[in-house]
Recover the amino acids of this structure.
């Protein structure tokens, strides 16, 4: 049987590890912040303790076996429901956000399980590695991704727009070399999403002024 002191140590460490990662997410004002990460870590820790020690009273009973991993294994799949709630899909620009937070929650659940199982060093080391990934490596990720980032030009037009004239005017004004584009019809409007490689120098002011001359254009937005 696990002692009361050992139980408090495991739950306390799980709360601490979850809080450290949660603070990093809280700093960026994500929906899953300090308390969410702490709750996931402590909850996972308790589940692991229950899985390992909660059935000690029936051990030794004929035809009864104990596999501590079975209850804990449900956390790995079950945490996906919470993680899915942190993934926000923004329709404008088709941007998916929250994947890193969801992965962080999954990792925090694993940290809680490790702490509940008494693997303190593994839980602590994973917490440090997770903080390095989430915090310290972020500037390097942004610097690297900038080289491969795309510009996105979003144009909302009426259904009476002339596609050939629209794209020809863009090429003439800015010499744009499109990577790809998508057009979707919504009622009496058509929404175009045009992507350009980051390496191209684009004078967006000239592009916007050219598009404004087209009476069919209703809205223009630029993401870089």
């Amino acid at each position: 049987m696990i002692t009361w002191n050992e139980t408090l140590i495991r739950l306390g460490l799980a709360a601490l590890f979850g809080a450290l990662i949660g603070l990093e997410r809280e700093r960026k004002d994500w929906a899953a912040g300090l308390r969410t990460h702490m709750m996931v870590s402590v909850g996972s820790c308790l589940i692991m303790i229950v899985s390992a020690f909660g059935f000690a009273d029936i051990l030794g009973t004929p035809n009864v076996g104990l596999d501590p991993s079975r209850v804990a294994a449900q956390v790995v799949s079950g945490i996906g429901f919470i993680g899915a709630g942190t993934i926000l899909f923004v329709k404008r620009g088709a941007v998916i956000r929250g994947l890193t937070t969801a992965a962080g929650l999954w990792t925090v659940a694993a940290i809680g399980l490790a702490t509940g199982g008494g693997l303190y060093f593994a839980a602590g080391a994973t917490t440090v590695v997770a903080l390095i990934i989430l915090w310290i490596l972020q500037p390097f990720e942004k610097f690297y991704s900038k080289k491969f980032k795309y510009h996105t030009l979003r144009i909302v037009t009426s259904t009476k727009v002339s596609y050939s004239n629209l794209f020809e005017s863009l090429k003439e004004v800015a010499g744009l070399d499109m990577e790809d584009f998508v057009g979707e019809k919504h009622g009496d409007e058509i929404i175009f999403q045009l992507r350009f490689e980051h390496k191209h120098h684009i004078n967006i002011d000239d592009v916007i002024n050219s598009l404004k001359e087209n009476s069919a254009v209703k809205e223009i937005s630029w993401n870089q």
